[in-house]
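=== Structure Prediction Worksheet ===
Name of assembly: unnamed complex
Input type: mixed (protein and possibly other molecules)
Chain count: two
Listed entries:
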Amino acid sequence: MEKGYLSMVLHAHLPFVRHPEYEHFLEEDWFYEAITETYIPLLNVFEGLVNDGVDFRITMSITPPLAAMFSDELLQNRYVRHIEQLIELSAKEIDRTRYLPEFHETAKMYHQRFMQCRYAFVDRYHKNLINGFKKFQDMGKLEVITCTATHGFLPLMENRREAVHAQVQMAARDYERHFGRGPRGIWLAECGFNPGDDAELKKAGIKFFFVDSHGVLHGHPRPKYGVFAPVYTKSGVAAFGRDIESSKSVWSSEEGYPGDYRYRDFYRDIGFDLDMDYIKDYIHPDGIRKHTGIKYFRITGKGTDSKVPYNHHEAAEVAASHAGNFLFNRVKQVEYLAEVMGGKKPIIVSPYDAELYGHWWFEGPIFIDFLLRKMFYDQDVVRTITPYEYLLENPTNQVVTPSMSSWGNKGYNEVWLEGSNDWIYRHLHKMSERMTELANQFPASDGVLSRALNQAARELLLAQSSDWAFIMKTGTMVEYAVRRTKSHVNRFNQLYDMIKSATIDEAVVRELESKDNIFPGVDYTLYKTSNLTGTH
Amino acid sequence: MIDQQQDLVKLTKHELLQIATDLDVKYRTRMGKPELVGSILEVIAEKRCEICPDSESILSAQLDQDKTETELMAAAKEAMEASKFSPIEPPVVAYREPSPVPLGAKVLEDHHYLPEGYGDNLIVMMVIDPVSTYAYWEVTDWKRDEVLRQAGAEGQTYDVVVRLYDVTDVKFNGSNAWSTKEFVVNFAMNWYFPVAANRSYCMDVGLRLGDKRFLFIARSNVVSTPRESVSDFYDEEWMMIDFNKNRDLYNELYRLSGGHVIRQYQLNSSFVTERGREEINLQIPIQSLSSETLSSNMGQKVESKKDFWLWVDTELIVYGQTKADAKALTINGEKVQLDKEGRFRLHMALPNGRFPFHVKAVSSDSSMSEEITPVVNRWIE
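=== Predicted Assembly ===
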């Protein structure tokens, strides 16, 4: 009989990037790379575990923008084009490396991987990876949860409650459209929580969410079991706190597993290294070099300029030993906690960005595979569980109001509110105010008015993606984030002016609908003030 | 010439950094927006002094010794933080063409002017962390004139000020705050304000007249800063939620998963004895463990000390043509694809060594064949 639980939470998210007006669009690659390197490899891990009879539980948030991209036909077909190009390039690489035995093995490995990706994407999941995740959810192995509608960061919307309400409601409705039932849990974007937001979750039928460790630890009153048991907020929604120790072993730049010198290096990529003439068909048509995903070197080590070739067999063994080490530490942790907590079984909640596994840490999916197999076969102290199953087993929990917190740098809102991005909030708040004004003015509508109102809601939601503020802060691809923010503000204001002056140009509405086509079921009446009964 | 605070505060941080770079402001990459504005104004003032000979001594004190070092550190940190949104350029880029404007920059067709304000009179407060807040505001000219007129103070000198009130646990009526602080903001439209943890605040924006009167223009929302430490409130309250009311969901989950499979216990893990028991860490987190701080050892490599380098590699192309309907073309026994015209092309890396390429073509009816064997030698002298 187990003494405690591990709940691994993978947060899968990318901002909604879709540009039908361009044949090739550099930022769409974020999505294609993540499919090849993270989403399909994870599905392959689940597939393998199920086939081998290994019981496991994983919780994954698939954000509404990511779900929208998965189910978008244009992006699906562009991914097929993308993976076919990679298959062609990797075949050339097998030829090119025939006299370089240290790279030849790796080239063959990539070729095989890309072929498998194509097979999984097209033949197994019929171009929509939601089918894959849903399959494992229906088997009871995977719990897919949602996220705020466009990864909107709630603590900075605090003065516009209608906007918080809409971010949560829209997410729940969109989830239902994809998965056939309401979401049980939510990953609040960037783990950003502000007391009071839980009431909105409750209204959407959501039963649990996650906060960073200090959100629970600084909660009020003092949480008896720290982060090792969920707490209920006053509205009766459960909050699970992040475990620090297990996070550190993967996330930390110094002690984390992904920094092992035998793992694959992320930066050296043939898209940058090889002769232009050879590589030109596989980078951006304008000759902008970019990552192809074919990388031949290992991390190698600090302070050395010459990289050693990568060996994927050796790296897999390292991943196995890291999985063993991770499990060993969890077993010790649970044994200790079970003693301290006297009777109550601890739950260790380990959330990570899904894209960490595979995209950044190439061997991450194999690590998960080894970890779940070892947990199943080698011990019976720790069992994987979903937060919902834990609540079924442990329905009585302490009532604590978690404190405002996020998992960003320093634990609060600074990443999304500082010198580089503070200018956006004046506009985002104004848009929310105007959206509510419109929703109150038009409690019902039809025809082109209704379409314009709904499109205004889409522009607002898209502008609220926390990704734009994040990118402005970190300083890569800033221009794109600034342009996206400004376009959504301007598109919104244009719609607002047309609606207020009763001069709606159907052609404009139609064009915006085709460009920003997220959320077919968007409903602007979510912004009505009357939705907020019971909150301030 | 940008020399007024009101011009600077309207700029974004990146624009300010650009100006700071032009002016060679020390430690600029480590500064927040308010410090940048302050430093830029200082440097501009110093540059002014430069013109008059007396100020020579002020300038001589400005020697910066460690500027490059601190900038390099800041740059390395930024590079590590942006990992999720590749492309990140690799540390050493081979033959990189001067890259055109990044694609995202030119493609969105909308006009990119944003209004500075919306003609409102308002102030909005936002929490950054337990000890800092941000506020933005807007005051229209007509509102300013109106309050001045109502106070009979047309033509008087005044400062635009924001007043920060500690309104923890009180219903604020304008005069019952625990404490009040006043900041002269004049031309700024937003600023950062230090506060204390676990307190509630709100703000007024208004005019402070020369005769000390305060003319109110707008009041902000109330915000509460989070606690910075563990609560000292121990009362425990417990709640039971009967999730089994949703018995159907419960059953579904377990039926579909086949219940809990009986496990096969094997003692085959060779890893469980690798490490000693580690101390369980119950401390409160200080450092962040988010994607932002993701990095590998590679992050530092960008800072290679060398400012000059060279690498050379060779690749070889073997190409040719045979009759388009040829049955097979092989190089060293491996089949090579022919295009419609019977052309073939093989591109490969060429390490040191001697490489014969035995090329053989066979006609469609296998009656004829041709063989040519070029040999390539590669070595480094």
